[in-house]
Amino acid sequence: MNVNVMTHPLIQHKVTLMRDVNTGSKDFRQLLDEITMLMGYEITRTLPLEDVEVETPLVKMTGKQIAGKKLGIIPILRAGLGMVNGMLSLIPTAKVGHVGMYRDPETLQPVEYYSKLPSDIEERDFIVTDPMLATGGSASAAITLLKEKGAKHIKLMCLVAAPEGVEVVNRDHPDVPIYVAALDEKLNDHGYILPGLGDAGDRIFGTK
Ligand code: PRP
Ligand code: URA
């Protein structure tokens, strides 16, 4: 399995709070926002820099800025929306595309119902966001869609993953690095992650 588990103590602490069945939507959203920022800080660590001239109030100097291509954030609707603000706090100029997928409750297969992507897709690096990587069907299908539209550099950022989902994305998209806050034990018979945190979309939006 090829997956980066982010073991920073703040991330681990906040994931535990999110798992708690007694954590309500307001706190759940806030924690997801905070974890996304902490994960985003790590994921963007390797962005290339270039020199830029800047004039301080005192002198001219050569500073650093992020080089070349700009980033695109692609939340998988709905739950992936909960990770957008955190990423935009770090990278306010990122473009945001949307891919709508729901999981058929019987077959667990992903069904695409919406997509709207930035026009300069070939020139951007993308981070696909979705709190839950369960069977991996939704993430794999979203990445396939992005690639078909021309995306070349894609990372997948999830909160909680099951080994089954990691294996599917590794198999279908070996070029896509996966970043998670927690790698859980397994899926249950209904395709929910155990121990997991339940239905992320419902907990974010309070729709249960
Ligand atoms: C959830 C979750 C992922 C997907 C994961 O979305 O946010 O997109 O399930 O499952 P998979 O790895 O087995 O495909 P859901 O279909 O519940 O839709 P929602 O975000 O609109 O609630
Ligand atoms: N989707 C969720 O929201 N939670 C799971 O555990 C699996 C899929």
Protein architecture, described:
With 208 residues, the chain is an alpha/beta fold. 31% of the residues lie in helices and 31% in strands. The chain contains 6 helices and 13 strands. Strands 1, 4, 5, 6, 7, 8, 9, 10 and 11 form a 9-stranded mixed sheet that branches. A two-stranded antiparallel sheet has the order 2-3. Strands 12-13 form a two-stranded antiparallel sheet. Helix 1 packs antiparallel against helix 2 and helix 2 crosses helix 3 (84-90). The longest helix has 19 residues, at 25-43. It is globular and about 65 Å long. The two termini are 33 Å apart. The site of 1-O-pyrophosphono-5-O-phosphono-alpha-D-ribofuranose (PRP) has 24 residues, from strand 4, strand 6, strand 9, helix 4 and helix 6.
Blueprint (SSEs and pairs):
Elements: E1 4-5, H1 9-19, H2 25-43, E2 49-55, E3 60-66, E4 71-77, H3 84-90, E5 95-96, E6 98-103, E7 110-116, E8 125-129, E9 132-133, H4 137-148, E10 153-161, H5 163-172, E11 178-183, E12 186-187, E13 193-194, H6 200-205
Helix pairs in contact: 1-2, 2-3
Bound molecules: 1-O-pyrophosphono-5-O-phosphono-alpha-D-ribofuranose and uracil (URA).
Query: For the residues shown, what is the average pLDDT?
Result: 96
Bound ligands, each once: 1-O-pyrophosphono-5-O-phosphono-alpha-D-ribofuranose, uracil
Question: What proportion of the residues is helical, as a percent range?
Answer: 25-40%
Rg is: 18 Å
Characterize the overall form.
Answer: globular
- Along the chain, the helix and strand elements come as EHHEEEHEEEEEHEHEEEH
Instruction: Provide the low-confidence segments as ranges.
Output: none
Structural class: alpha/beta
Distance between the termini: 33 Å
